[in-house]
Amino acid sequence: MNDYVSPVGQGIPRLETRDKITGRAVYADDMSRPDMLVGVIVPSPHAHARITGYDVSAALALDGVAAVVTGVDIGDHKIGPFVKDETALAVGKVRYMGEPVAAVAAVDLETARQAARLIDISYEELPAVFDTDAATAADAPALHEGFADYIKVFEADSDRNAMAIIEIVEGDVDAAWERCAAIVEGSYETQAQCHTYMEPCSALAEIDSNGKITIWSSNQSVFHVQSFVADSLGLPMSKLRCVTPQVGGAFGGKMEQTVQPAAAALARATGRPVKVTLSREQDFEMIRSRHPGKVWMKTGAAADGTLLAREVRIVLDAGAYADDSPGVAGIAALFCRGPYRIENVSIESRPVYTNKLRSGAFRGFGGPQVAIAGETQIDEIADRLGMDPIDLRLKNVVLPGEEWMIGVALNKAGLSECLERVRAACGWDAKRKAVSNGSGRKRGIGLACIPHISGVLTSGAIVRILEDGTAVLNTGAVDNGQGSDTVLVQICAAALGLEVDQVSVATPDTDGSPYNWGTTASRVTYMAGRAVVAAAEDAVAQLKQRAAVMMECAEEDLELRDGGRIGIKGVPEAEIGFRDISGFSHWVAGGPVIGTNSLAYDGPDFDPKRGYLKGFPFGKIGAWIFAAQAVEVEVDEATGRIVPLKVWSAHDIGKAINPTAVEGQIQGGIVQGLGYALCEEMVWDSGRLANPSLMDYKIPGIMDVPPEIDTMLVEDPDEHGPFGAKGVGEPPIVGIAPAISNAVAHATGTRLRRLPMTPERVLRALRG
Amino acid sequence: MEFHGPSTVDEAVSLLAADEDARCLAGGATLVAMMNADLVMPSALVSLRHIAALGGIAADAGGGLRIGAMTTHREVADAAGLDGAHALISETARAIGHPAIRNMGTIGGSIGHGDPQADYPAALVALDASVELRGPDGARAVPAQDFFVDYLETALQPGELITAVTLPPSPAGGFGAYEKFARVEGDYATVSVAAAVAMEAGRCRYVRVALGSCGPIPVRAEDAEARLAGTALADEDVAAAAAVLRDACDPVDDVRGSGEYRMMLVEPLLGRALRAAAAKGGAR
Amino acid sequence: MSEAIPISLTVNGRTHRLFVQPWHTLLQVLREQISLTGSKRGCNQGVCGACSVMIDGAVMRGCLTLAADAAGREIVTVEGLAVGGALSPVQQALLDHGAVQCGFCMPGMAVAATALLADNPSPSDAEIRDGLSGNLCRCSGYVKVVEAVRSASAGGAS
Lengths: 768, 284, 158
Fold this sequence. Notes:
The complex is a heterotrimer. Chain A is an alpha+beta fold. In chain A, 28% of the residues lie in helices and 26% in strands.
């Protein structure tokens, strides 16, 4: 036999690391094509205005300018994943400051920028609304007069600028309050967080003489790019080929359109390759952010700590266009109960249009906005009842075999173990008993639980056995840096019994890759991984079929052996290698071995008999994943600064395909969570983003994060996941803010309900 | 745009004098960032990199210290054996940005920008420093306190450049401390306090304090220093001095904090800076 | 547009004769004129650190250095760290520790870490953090980056 070790479970370095650390890895802005032009986008200077005219003559007259395109040129082709409400360049109206209005292509960046300043667009300003209260007031201007006629992919009521009203009701909250021994109620406010991927959005588009446009861009799904560029320019999808070079981070921010439509429109207008790369400032002002949220929540428990009821009203500031807002609002509604068995819930969630940057998908997808409310209320109830917060949670957490709200069955749920692991690792019981006295710097520890899902929609995979018996894997899944290429290759290699370096991974390319909805919803390992396993199994079946012919035996007598061999069961010496089989299949009989699979998420569905559900914009959603996180902090009572000292994070992940990559995902998510909790906030001043730079918008640097982050992996294999794996991408960001709020309350007795918990807000709260 | 790389101060002065829109290029950390953002586009750049006379840190016979305008933050941060309160300037340099910025940025470039959120201005006022200038009409020295005129405005006249910063001898038994409070490490200060203190028998014999990010220029209040002199720097003394200083502040509201919050930080940061400086004396 | 300035730029030991505009940054010239696209433009304001290069041995910002002002100085970019195809100790450690995710910050991070260890071969963890404090990373949470640099240092277990 051989000493083959399955690649699954090995923390191998990411496949493309060598290129990335030597500077060889190619990102979109690193590319250039012969005769390439540089494109610049002209932003709207107004938050809400009617466009009354365009004069592009001065820009076009400038030496070196090849083309200017505006909404008039691309036409009123509306796009949007849930509501088709926006155009790639504004048509008729602008609805936020920074909205793309025109684009110009020129020989170099300086010329393009100069031309952009010469484009003269006249506007008639309209009354604007900058927060959800103003947008829902009786006299608020309508942002989208034609909303009723827009194409939508879900059914929900709408009201004024609220584009959807999502409701989930189970049991009877009003009756339940009477049975509660402790009830807490509060209003919570969260901020716009910028994804701040390190690579600003970039796209290079090139058109051939048949009018087919190839787009290399930074994105989360080449198929999505193909679809929204086709929609936005009124092109058939067959006229677009979308490819993804390396992506410098995304976190949800590159799932929908960025600069691809503008680059494609400029390529079409000029007939030449055009690259559009945003400046950091424009990336802040133009793309999307996490939804600011206003949440009112009320939670009640019986004297023994059994949670009985929760009522929630969620209002998310969607900005000027719907983007992923109905989805985010729906997921916020679905997650706001928290991972607890609460029989009586009444939830309403509304995404509301305002004249600001669109809000969209961002790691956590509605979870963070409700976790700060839900997880701090659990602590407040524990406090009222004199219970330990972990004991209270353990009493109420959802267990395997139970159902989520509206009847989605939980096959596996490892949250209790996550809680126990964190409790033991952080020294919870001793630290909770320690009480900070006097004033100065006070210590406290707090915890939060996170429910999330891993899955959604569709994926495919192709595993082709090459002539020499090695393989190429093609899934079309975009690796945003989290390591999915490596993980999928590990899965593929393990399923074929090959080494990792015997499996190559294809670049996502809409001309050649099978469909993958996107790198989002913590889904690539789980969904694309399942497709890879099934495609590899299909390839193995074909290998056996060819081998049976070669070895003159029955297919069912054959088995896959490690190291790339097919052998006769029970006869160790009777075997044949992939190379021989593949040679035979390519040149003699049977044909090349091409294993394929395509799947839609097929897990448990909602149960309409269990509760009332309205306007929820998803069908089957995914496998449930859970996490528990604790943070120990020190609070400087003189300045209000919260210093995170250490973080503990336990995750129910099914199985770690690559433990090093999983740890890295968790650590990175935690640090984004620290930024969300403590310092990151996009601030608008009458429609103008006041801090569109890394100088003014601060993400945590290495000095701002605790030296120690303790990650714990709870591995209880999922029955459908590839080798038992589930996703892990999103939960790590979600629990940090509530855990810190709980830790601050433990340290100081002061409860913080607004994010970020800046020193200023903390100091004001401490001073009452 | 013209680009010049003179090798003498005189050459640089004549280039600056010949073109009102010319700008000195020192480390580039601020000017190039502004050029990249399209905020300034000078008609000419006069790089000071090749002027050897603008570099170096040297003590003079009388105990003063002269820091050439092109001395980088890192050179100031790493300067060893500085006398008493002079070490405050190193401590301040270490608080600026991060290694790359400290390797690039220079003391002349930093103060020439006149940004009250920068770190050096308050430290130089607390150290009673002077700024040496050279222009078409010759050399002059301006006390740091007068050099900073308004937000992004200094005493520099057209054609002038900064040649050095000079510190008078450290007050006897004096030590300094720089207390910086920022949203995250490496950011501009929300509030900073630079203090030079000499203690004798537990009492404050000398004190000079300046606040950064609390107004258009570094904030100093002689009455506050008078209130602290002779005290043991007890809480009530700090509180009383802070109240006087707050009256002299005129902070802005911005993304780093509201003006009101900046005022709230004055007292605790003042206390920390004074006690840190005093403790350095105690440790001797 | 003004007259381009002839300069000679020494990058990774190779001297290039180029014409640049006075406002052209070193980063721009590296990426657009000599095809060294390893140094990244993350903010163009000197904050993110993705453009970090070594100039005369010290880590600096490619985006805040004017090409004309860099003439005559020794410039090392991420492309110059690996010698003869072998990864440098810092690069090898970043690879081994799984410190690299999207990788956009990594060229700058690797350069900053290299400069740090050249100055201080056995830094403490606090010194490692200070040395990398000008390099933002949005993926990793920095934990594995510190582990990698620690292991690449003279005191680190290899």
